[in-house]
Amino acid sequence: MTLTREKTLADRIRNDFPILHQEVNGKPLVYLDNAATSQKPLLVLNTLRDYYEQYNSNVHRGVHTLSAKATDAYEAARDKVAAFINAASRQEIVFTRNASEAINLVAYSWGSSLQTGDEIILSVMEHHSNLIPWQLLAQRTGAVLKFVELTPEQEFNLEHFKSLISDKTKLVATVHVSNTLGCISPVKEITAIAHQHGAKVLIDACQSVPHMPINVQQIDCDWLVASGHKMCASTGIGFLYGKLDLLRSMPPFLGGGEMIADVFLDHATYADLPHKFEAGTPAIAEAIALGAAVDYLSAIGMDNIYAYEAELTAYLWEQLGQIPGIKTYGPQPKVAGLGRAALAAFTAGDVHPHDLSTILDQAGVAIRAGHHCTQPLHRHLHIQSTARASLSFYNTRQEIDVFIAGLKEAVEFFGSLFS
């Protein structure tokens, strides 16, 4: 009697991703750069094509059939995103080009109220997109930046955070999941502590929204941002979640069409939420495709995605641990306080990460090498750069095996050069 292997989540859905079925440098593609950008299922690709082939038109501005259909699809995508993260109202979802623009929106709009001596707390592991806007805001207003350090396990240090926060703190902006360390920050506890001091909280959820269930009402954060291209949608679309009353209190970020109510030569009044923050023709096709991506992820189930990726993560770390000279960063799956994301940043002795990435590419394996837009974190860890393998629910153990075999060959090759 022959036993057949039970199909995994990846086995069931890989045919939905045509890009995965190709060869790179004569080898089957193994795509392990998902933290940088995800691949797109046929549902999303077809949604983009259908928009341009069947009802390409501007939204909100026309009464003809194509405009009405485009508007309905665009606003339906907003409803899907709101439900996906459990927002209390569809008006709490603002479409942006990406998470970076969403953070800048908050920094320039709400941030204009800050004054000299007000404090903003970040962490040393922030992505540049959740660091530079606050640096610029501090330069404009005289606000002071403070930084939470890491625990010995390289996670968000909640005790250090408690020592930094005070009644001078106006904002806590932190990453939910580090794109380098893979640690999951205790955002619910962070938010509760911040609110006790009257501070607002912004969560960078780019690396969490695509991989685990998110409930903004349970977190109770004031803002949350994410990018579509990391969650199986296209580039050029992201969103800002913000509490309704808070968004209503914020002045517009950009001026132009769509965000107005009435315009006169010397003044204007502004549209209600969320359109007050969506100036100009939006990324219509991309927003509709984001809605399709939400449909796709929801049909699989975010609990199922998180559970499957946790299995892959444990296997990835186990295999990396068997290669001499490999040093990994961030908490190991067995010791991570809140679990960890499906990625591993690592170094291999004196071998430059770019060299590792180049050799692996020859084997058809795509990983990331560099500072991953976290230069301050790398300096904090006393390293210049790392290699990073990041997984998604369409990856398999067999692909990890291919990656590990290629990595072993690369380490042995460069080791022979250095010996």
From TrEMBL:
CDD domains: SufS_like (cd06453). Belongs to the class-V pyridoxal-phosphate-dependent aminotransferase family. Csd subfamily. The keyword Transferase applies. Its cofactor is pyridoxal 5'-phosphate. Keywords: Pyridoxal phosphate, Transferase. One of its GO terms (molecular function) is cysteine desulfurase activity. Signal peptide: none annotated. This is cysteine desulfurase. It catalyses: (sulfur carrier)-H + L-cysteine = (sulfur carrier)-SH + L-alanine. The lineage of its organism: Bacteria, Bacillati, Cyanobacteriota, Cyanophyceae, Oscillatoriophycideae. Its EC number is 2.8.1.7. InterPro entries: Aminotrans_V_dom, Cys_dSase_SufS, PyrdxlP-dep_Trfase, PyrdxlP-dep_Trfase_major, PyrdxlP-dep_Trfase_small. One of its GO terms (biological process) is cysteine metabolic process. The keyword Transferase applies. It comes from the Bacteria. It comes from Gloeocapsopsis dulcis AAB1 = 1H9. It holds the Pfam family Aminotran_5. Residues 30-403 form the Aminotransferase class V domain.
